[in-house]
C-alpha cells in the first residue's frame, strides 16, 4: 500500500528542550510518547524523517504583526523562565522551539506542494492554535497551523485551504486569524463550555464550529464530522487539508471531559482523506496541538499518522 507514496514526519530536538516546569502538562515527554508508539507499531519505519527548519520573519509576518514577533524575541530569557500568560512560559530554548514548530508546518507545506511527500505530520511543541495574531496564550506562542496555511496561500498560490481542528479546546487563535478570510474554512469540534470559552457566539461564515458537551464521545464526534464538517468541506473544495491535531479529547486525558477513543483519530482521518484526494491531490499536513495523557497521546497520534501514511489498508 505504501508503494511510492511518501509521508513525512517532521520534528526537531529543540522542541524537546522547551520546558515549562516539572509539573506542566505540556511537557517534552509528549514527543517521546509519540516516537515510542511509532516504533512499537512499526509505523515509524514507513515515514520519511525531516528536521524542522526555523521559521523566517517573513513567514511569521503573514500571521503575526512584526511588533509581536519582536516582543517574543525580546522576552526570550538567556536563563531561567519568563511567563507570557499564567499557562505559557519560555525557557532559554523556547524561542528556537517555537520557531521550529512554525517552520515545521512551512516545510510540510513545501513538501506536499512540490510532490516530495503526499502527507506530513509535524511532531512539534509548543503547540499553536490558541496563539492569536498578537497574543500568546494556552501553551502557544506562534500559531503554527495558521502560518502553514498562509504559506500555502501566499507562497504557493493556493486559493482554498481548510483547517481541521479536533483538539478538545476551541482553536480561538486560529479563528482570530482567519475569521472572515474566504480563502480558509475552519472545521472544529471542542468541549463547550470550556477553556478558552470561545467559538460559539456568532462565528463567522467560514467557521464550522461544533461545540460538544462534557461527556460526549465517539458517537457525537462522528455525527459532527458527518453532518457538519463533510458537507461544508465538499462545498468549499479545499486544495489542501491542514490539521490542528490535538489528542486531548481522548477519554483517558483528564485535561478535559470528552470521551474520544484511539480509533476515532484514525476514523476522522479516513473520512477526510477522500476530500483531500478529490480537491487537493491528497495533500494533508498535520500539526500536533494538545494531548496530555502520554500513552493515549502516542496511540492516538499513531492511528492518525497511519492513515496519513496510507498504511491502513
Ligand atoms: Zn487542547
3D structure, described in words:
This protein is an alpha/beta fold and 313 residues long. It is built from ten helices and ten strands. Helix 9 (262-280) links the parallel strand 9 and strand 10 (284-288). The model has no long low-confidence stretch (mean pLDDT 97). The site of zinc ion (ZN) has 7 residues, from loops.
Rg estimate, integer Å: 17 Å
- What share of the residues does DSSP label as strand, in percent? 15-25%
Strand order within the widest beta sheet: 2-1-5-10-9-6-7-8
Helix tally?
10
Low-confidence stretches: none
Structural class: alpha/beta
Silhouette: globular
List the bound ligands: zinc ion
Mean pLDDT: 97
Q: Characterize the largest beta sheet: strand count, sense, and whether it forms a barrel.
A: 8 strands, parallel
Helix content, binned percent: 25-40%
The total strand number stands at: 10
Oligomeric composition of the shown chains: single chain
H and E order: EHHEHHEEHEHEHEEHEHEH
Distance between the termini: 7 Å
Chart the SSEs and their pairings.
Elements: E1 7-11, H1 14-17, H2 29-41, E2 47-51, H3 57-61, H4 66-75, E3 82-85, E4 88-90, H5 94-113, E5 119-122, H6 144-155, E6 161-165, H7 172-178, E7 184-191, E8 207-212, H8 218-236, E9 240-245, H9 262-280, E10 284-288, H10 294-308
Parallel strand pairs: 1-2, 1-5, 5-10, 6-7, 6-9, 7-8, 9-10
Antiparallel strand pairs: 3-4
Helix pairs in contact: 2-10, 5-6, 8-9, 9-10
The structure holds zinc ion (ZN).
Zinc ion binds next to loops.
